[in-house]
Write a structure and sequence with these properties.
Blueprint: E1 4-10, E2 23-29, H1 31-43, H2 49-67, E3 75-80, H3 84-98, E4 102-106, H4 114-125, H5 134-140, E5 143-147, H6 161-170, E6 175-178, E7 203-207, E8 220-224, H7 230-235, E9 249-252
Helix pairs in contact: 2-3, 3-4
Length: 260
């Protein structure tokens, strides 16, 4: 049984591109169904994890370009977790380097999958630095990509991530979170206390479809991951907006009260 939630989005005038676009109802997909969707894409859809991660990371990099163009500062700090969300961040860092930014990567708990090792090698071949001292890098970066935890996060936070998220939360830097703000419960939003309780990133990119926690989010919100087919969207009851031209992302705005 598909568990999904309708969320109303009001588009600002600057990004209205539909004939009847004032309010759009998008379904939020549960963490369980998001995992099932990825499994369907790979088992019956002919996709590989590499391909999905590549398109997800490209979407993240395009979202960065839209909220923080190079003219606003080229130093981008990408903070990666040990799973697929971190892999998306590694891909995004590579694309950001090609886009003309100066990315660096903080990867305190590296994933053991051979795919992550290859993504790391690709960045090293581009001379993208992997930093070991987080606090100085956080103080000097122009923008931060939070690619620590995605839809599979179930808590609780384990070292070293409570301190990392607390530092991001209190830093004076704009943040784009990938799929969900790290530390947030996918269903219920930010924790009531502790690291992440006051974490509200400047921008959020939902991959494939919004997750239920997006109802608690206040900020610029993007949809990314332009690869779903009709049979997949029908199966999971998704009704995603149409991407424009060659864009891999689409911004979904907030209403006058700042609510999604």
């Amino acid at each position: 049984m598909i568990r999904s939630t309708f969320i109303n989005f009001r588009l600002p005038l600057s990004i209205r591109r539909y004939s009847k676009p004032t309010i759009m109802s998008l379904k939020a997909i549960s963490a369980k169904d998001a995992a099932s969707l990825d499994k369907d894409l790979m088992e019956t859809g002919g996709w590989s994890l590499d391909q999905l991660m590549e398109l997800a990371g490209l979407s993240v990099a395009q979202a960065v370009w839209k909220v923080h163009p190079p003219s606003a500062g080229k130093n981008i700090l990408v903070v990666c977790g040990p799973g697929n969300n971190g892999g998306d961040g590694l891909v995004a860092a590579r694309h950001l380097a090609h886009f003309g930014y100066t990315p660096s990567v903080y990867y305190p708990k590296q994933g053991k999958n051979e795919l992550y090792q290859r993504l790391t090698t690709q960045l090293q071949n581009l001379s993208v630095p992997f930093i070991g001292d987080f606090q100085p890098a956080l103080k000097t970066t122009d923008f931060l990509v939070d690619a620590i935890f995605g839809f599979s996060f179930g808590g609780p936070l384990r070292d070293p991530f409570p301190e990392i998220i607390s530092q991001i939360e209190s830093a004076n830097v704009q943040v784009l979170s990938v799929d969900a703000p790290s530390s947030w419960d996918i269903q219920n939003g930010p924790p009531k206390e502790g690291p992440g309780a006051n974490f509200m990133p400047h921008a959020l990119i939902s991959l494939s479809a919004p997750k239920p926690c997006v109802a608690f989010y206040r900020g610029r919100h993007f949809i990314g991951g332009r690869f779903l087919t009709k049979n997949i969207t029908d199966k999971y009851g998704l009704d995603l907006p149409k991407y424009q031209g060659v864009e891999q992302v689409l911004e979904i705005g907030v209403d006058a009260e700042g609510r999604l």
